Amino acid sequence: MIGFLLLLLLLASCQKFDEVFIEEDLLQRPQAKRCADCHADIYKEWLKSRHAKAWVSEHFKFETENYSKTKCLSCHAPHQVDPDKKPVLRVEFRRDGVSCVACHFKEETMAMHGPLKVWSPPHPSIQDLNYLKSNFCAGCHQETYKEWKLTKVQKSCQSCHMPSLGKKDLIQKFPFHLFHLAKPRTSHEFPSLKAKPDDIQIKIEGKKLLITNVGVPHNLPTADQGEPKFYLVVKATSKDGKVKTIRRILSPQRKNALVYGRPFVITLPFEHIDKVQVEIHRKLAWAKERDLILRKELTP
Amino acid sequence: MRKFLSFFVLSAGLVFAEEKIVLKKPPSSLDKYYPPASTKFEFLSNMHAMSTAFYGINANINEGNWEKALMWAQKLKEIYVKTSKMVPEWKNYFKPELADALVNAVKSKDTDKVIKASRNLGQTCAKCHRDNELVVKLYYHFPSFDKVKLEDPIDFMEYETGKYMKVMTNSLKALKVFLSQGDLDRAQEEGMNFIERARGLRAMCSKCHTNKLSEEVILGKNFEEGLAKLEKLLSETPKKEEVFQALGQVTISCAKCHNVHLAPAMVREAFSR
Question: Predicted ipTM?
Answer without folding.
Answer: 0.76
